TrEMBL record:
Example of a GO biological process term: polyadenylation-dependent RNA catabolic process
Signal peptide limits: none
Source species of the chain: Shewanella frigidimarina (strain NCIMB 400)
Transmembrane feature ranges: none
InterPro entries: NT_sf (IPR043519), PolA_pol_head_dom (IPR002646), PolA_pol_I (IPR010206), PolyA_pol_arg_C_dom (IPR025866), PolyA_RNA-bd (IPR032828), tRNA_ntf/polyA_polymerase_I (IPR052191)
UniProt key word Oxidoreductase: no
Family: Belongs to the tRNA nucleotidyltransferase/poly(A) polymerase family.
Region described as Disordered: 323-353
Keyword Protein transport on entry: no
MF terms in GO: ATP binding; poly(A) RNA polymerase activity; RNA binding
The protein's name: Poly(A) polymerase
Residue span(s) of domain Polymerase A arginine-rich C-terminal: 225-344
Coiled coil residues, start to end: none
Amino acid sequence: MFGRDVIEVATFRGHHSESNDKVSKSNAEGRLLRDNVYGEIDEDAERRDFTINALYYDISDYSIRSYGGGINDLNARTIKLIGDPDTRYREDPVRMLRAVRFATKLDMQIDAVTADPIKALAPLLADIPAARMYEEVLKLFFAGKAEANYNMMQRFGLFAPLFPQVGALIEESPKGHAAKMLQVVMRNTDIRVSEDKTVTPAFFFAAILWYPVKQRADDIAIESGLTHYDAYVAAMGDVLEKQCLTISLPRRFSTPARDIWQLQLRLERGQGTRAFKLLEHPKFRAAYDLLLLRGEVEMGNIAKIAEWWKAFVEADETDRSDIAKSIKGSNSRNRNAPQRKRRRKPAAKPAEE
């Protein structure tokens, strides 16, 4: 503590390969599980991930010590790993994500040797604790570089290990709804950050996981015969459970995400006078924003519903009443939901003469 200022101090660390298992341990893939080896500044520098991170400020003469060519790489705007890339990525696969994040954040290029093994080693991210991956996702997508990070992650195969359900849909249909939604969400998030508006993990995850939920609900409805609504409720639980295996989404965000999904079903059939009631829902705005994004992605009937809601929300009280009354009851039904087949009554037999 220096008055009101806090300076964080980290102990220099040494080479784990020369230590015993009591202070350092790695798994079969080479990832460090425990690493409490202490050393000198030269050893610590060799253990940094990138050369631009191996810079030390010497308070004795106010100089910066550069190891591994860090200053030169900084001036050349190059992200370069210290040591063998394959080994360093296996020690900590999150370094692959850090390479992407530093490149987009600092407007730098990833060195060819540093980039070369990333695609082959990307599946190692699946072994990283889900809680740690949640923190990495916040850094990747909530700092104004979501679209750039997403595009680079796709190029290196780093996105699917984090979001396997979305990745599977994109692989199946590279230009489908899920792929389009990702681009729209990333762009929308960057715009909100640039305008200093709030961005929440609840909406972010609800948006990018919407199409996995939709597909799972369709499968459940076919397999079990559940109603449209019940199939969606079951699908929400399944999708969140699988997603939390790779990224641990806190309940304070997963619960609102469920609300946003459930409101999609109500918004699709809630045109007319019922719209006033929906406006009062605490998560209406988030659900409405997702509906607008779906309108951009899907077009067709969803786009028309989104346009109606946009006109309704932006109108004043008097116009809202007129807009609500102009919708006939038949139009408020959910056209996307499977309709119950009505049984025809058998024709009446003629009376015997």
